């Protein structure tokens, strides 16, 4: 009887959900959203409070008829190594690949900042295209759970 209960407990433990894919990416608006012909800044932030990560690849998408990227910066980034610096890849697409040479990062940290100029009035989203956050403990494992905007 005890063996059966022990076996059942081990079986249940094997099928319990793990805290594997827990990382998040978000876009934070750093100043008030502005009107036509004004500038505003955003930051791309990564967060994982459970497991460490050491790299990320991010693509941001926006309407180039409504917004113009005028500056990108990694000055305050948690990453100190760049395979691809944050930059405009094509009209309406920003791409970056970065990482850290340290022992991974746990918590919330800024990846990059971007400054835009509004070319037209009205709302236009800046959103994630492809994105990944790579685990420090398991190389090449994408631990990104979700990505979202906080630009309301």
- The gyration radius over C-alpha positions equals 19 Å
Low-confidence stretches: 1-21
Strand content: over 45%
Number of strands: 8
The major sheet is characterized as:
8 strands, mixed
Number of helices: 1
Structural class: mainly beta
Secondary structure: helix percent: under 10%
Question: What's the average pLDDT?
Answer: 83
Oligomer: single chain
Name the overall outline.
Answer: elongated
Q: How far apart, in Å, are the first and last alpha carbons?
A: 58 Å
Order of helices and strands: HEEEEEEEE
Write a compact overview of the structure shown.
The chain is 9% helix and 55% strand.
What is the strand and helix layout of this fold?
Blueprint lengths: L1 H14 L7 E7 L9 E23 L5 E7 L7 E10 L2 E7 L5 E14 L8 E9 L8 E7 L2
Parallel strand pairs: 1-8
Antiparallel strand pairs: 1-2, 2-5, 2-6, 2-7, 3-6, 4-5
Core attributes:
1 helix, eight-stranded mixed beta sheet, single chain, disordered N terminus, mainly beta, 152 residues, 55% strand, elongated
How would you sum up this structure, described in words?
There is one protein chain. With 152 residues, the chain is mostly beta strands. Helices cover 9% and strands 55% of the residues. The protein has one helix at 2-15, and strands at residues 23-29, 39-61, 67-73, 81-90, 93-99, 105-118, 127-135, 144-150. Strands 1, 2, 3, 4, 5, 6, 7 and 8 form an eight-stranded mixed β-sheet that branches. Strand 4 (81-90) and strand 5 form a beta hairpin. The protein starts with a helix and ends with a strand.
């Amino acid at each position: 009887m005890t063996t059966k209960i022990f076996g059942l407990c081990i079986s249940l433990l094997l099928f319990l959900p793990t805290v594997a894919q827990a990382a998040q990416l978000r876009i934070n608006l750093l100043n008030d959203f502005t009107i036509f012909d004004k500038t505003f800044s955003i930051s791309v932030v990564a967060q994982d409070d459970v497991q460490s990560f050491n790299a990320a690849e991010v693509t941001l998408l926006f309407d180039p008829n409504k917004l113009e990227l005028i500056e990108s910066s990694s000055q305050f980034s948690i990453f100190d190594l760049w395979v691809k610096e944050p930059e405009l890849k094509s009209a309406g697409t920003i791409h970056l690949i970065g990482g850290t040479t340290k022992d991974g990062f746990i918590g919330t940290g800024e990846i990059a900042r971007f400054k835009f100029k509004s070319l037209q009035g009205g709302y236009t989203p800046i959103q994630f295209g492809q994105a990944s956050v790579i685990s420090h403990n398991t190389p090449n494992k994408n631990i990104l759970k979700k990505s979202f905007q906080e630009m309301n």
